[in-house]
Specification:
By secondary structure, the chain is mainly α. It has helices at residues 7-17, 43-50, 69-82, 99-111, and strands spanning 34-35, 56-57. It has 2 domains: 7-63, no CATH class; 68-111, no CATH class. Strands 1-2 form a two-stranded parallel sheet.
């Protein structure tokens, strides 16, 4: 079972940061618009939960590779280069083990002085 001890605080912060989205916390599991699933959920268990139109989830069947942050970030970086207007809600991501990304990050860091960064080893 995944550790969810910090999930409530994170979700409350997400709701606070996006008042325009009109997100609310729902105890009723059938009406949720944003669903967060543990990493080890099986595809057949996941399907009924995400079948509702308009539901967002952190996991989708048969695309487990997107659950890996580095792969997902690389794909989103491609999307942002192809169509930046449609993907402007995704913050840039950098893989510091790649020389090109390290240089991009250093340049970005000089431009964006008031931003908090999250580093994942």
């Amino acid at each position: 079972m995944a550790d969810a001890s910090k999930a409530e605080a994170v979700l409350r912060k997400i709701i606070e940061l996006r008042p325009d989205a009109k997100w609310v916390e729902e105890i009723n599991r059938t009406k949720a618009k944003l669903r967060w699933f543990q990493p080890n959920i099986k595809d057949e268990e996941l399907l009924p939960h995400i079948a509702t139109k308009g539901t967002l989830a952190n996991r989708y069947p048969d695309i487990k590779v997107l659950a890996h942050k580095d792969t997902f970030a690389a794909l989103m970086n491609i999307c942002m280069r192809v169509n930046p207007k449609d993907y402007d809600m995704i913050p840039p991501s950098f893989n510091l083990s790649l020389p090109g990304d390290r240089k991009r990050f250093e340049a970005y860091q000089l431009e964006q002085k008031d931003i908090v960064y999250i580093a994942k080893p």
